[in-house]
Structures are given as structure tokens and as C-alpha cells.
Amino acid sequence: MPRLDVIAVFAAATFVLTATPGPGVLYVVGRSVGGGRRAGFASMLGIETGEAAYIAGAALGITALLAATPLALAALRYAGAAYLIWLGVRAWRQRAHLAAGEHEGDGNPAGSGGWAAYRRGLVVQLLNPKVAVFFLAYFPQFLRPAQPAAPQVLLLGAVYLAIAVLTDTCYVMAASWLADRLSRTARAQRRRARVSALTYFALAAVALAAGDRGGTVRALGGATR
What we know:
Elements: H1 4-19, H2 23-35, H3 37-60, H4 62-67, H5 70-99, H6 114-126, H7 129-138, H8 149-182, H9 186-209, H10 213-218
Helix pairs in contact: 1-8, 2-3, 2-8, 2-9, 3-6, 3-7, 3-8, 5-6, 5-9
């Protein structure tokens, strides 16, 4: 297992990475703005579940196989961008419904329940190949070569996820609080839906602009968050 001082350094570096706004943070913030605190937390859990899956893949060596296949990475990247565009279109249509005076009891659109938000966050993160490459490049820097890698990756992964949940929770709370204060009127609610839609479109553009595997590696150091 890694020494305590190594774990401490890893935790500090992870805090800086996860607290720095990136695509993952923007997604959670966008969902918190568009759907409220419940959608934000559910989306956050979906994002972290996707990261947990890639951490397990790194421990088992699956992530290395994926990172060595440019075609698979490209397929994931384009699929993720297409999914984000689809979510953006749905959010923009929500804005149109609000303009027409269509509301639900909680002010959220149909299909924005906790499970739906969790599922979308999970899919978004699983279709983000930068996450796989990031963990493949990040974790080995803190491993002890003389010991089995899998248990060390799982331990560091647990530390990473705990810190990520902490930082993302702060973003969810802040974004949902601000959105609630700024959405007192129907016009403000339409703007809230528009911000959510534009966030999806921006994330799709980032995914498409990431380029090939080389570009993904160069984007390490915050690109997954």
C-alpha cells in the first residue's frame, strides 16, 4: 500500500484537480442550475459512479487496453458529444415549454427526476474517454512498484472519489442556491433553462475539440473535472 505521506500528497493534488472547474464540474453545475439541487446531486452521483467504473477498469488493466485503441477512444468521444447535444436540445425545449407557460409541480421538466439525472450523469462520464486516460496517467505516479498495483489503485481511487464528492457537493449547493434566488419569475426560469442547455452545447464542443488520444493526454491535469 502507498505510504501515508504519499496518500497525503495524492489527496492534496486530487483536491486541486477536482476543485478546478472543468467539464465534469460544469456538467454538475449546469444540472444544478437547470434542475435544482436534487438533479444536481443525482447527476453528481452518476458522474462519480462513472469514475468509479473507470477506476476499477484501471485496477484490472481494462483502461490500458482502451487507451491503446485510438478508434475506441474516438468512438467514445463522438458518442459522448452526440449525447450532450441531445441533452442540450432537450433542455432548450424545456425553455420553450416554460415560455408557453407549461410547468410541473416542482418547476422541473418531465424526466428530470433523480433517477433520470443519475442515469444521464453516468452515461456522460462513461462516454468521456479523457477520464480513462486521466486515471491511467495519474495513479501510477503514486504507486509503489514493488507491490501489486490493483489494491493501490483501488485505495487511491477511494480517496479520489471521496474528495470528488466533497468538492462537487459544494458546487451543487452553491449553484442550486444561486439558481433558486435568480428564478423567482417565469422569465428567470426560462433563462435558467437556457443556461442549462448552453452548458450541454459547450461541453459537447469541448469533447469534439479534445482531438485524438495525444490531445487527450496533453489535456491532463483537470480535463476530467
